[in-house]
Specification:
Length: 82
């Protein structure tokens, strides 16, 4: 029982460590694209193709990626880049 729990925690830590830099770049790129197109966040997501919207939803809501997303968001808020 504890072995499985420990393995899952280790996987979560590794995934979070790998994904934080990727999520930071992803969030910065989205913000830059919205600024370049002069769109609000709502307009940006309304005009997003369905396939891209599904990829975004999956990347932002997968249980193993939620800690990385939160840390990336905090990092960008702290750096005042969002």
């Amino acid at each position: 029982m504890w072995t499985i729990f420990l393995v899952l925690i280790c996987i979560l830590v590794v995934v979070t460590g790998v994904m934080v830099p990727m999520q930071v770049r992803y969030l910065k790129a989205m913000k830059e694209e919205m600024a370049r197109k002069r769109m609000s966040q709502q307009e940006y997501f309304d005009k997003m193709p369905v396939q891209e919207e599904m990829l975004h939803a999956t990347a932002q809501s997968h249980p193993f990626l939620i800690p990385a997303n939160f840390i990336a968001w905090l990092w960008l808020k702290w750096k005042k880049e969002l």
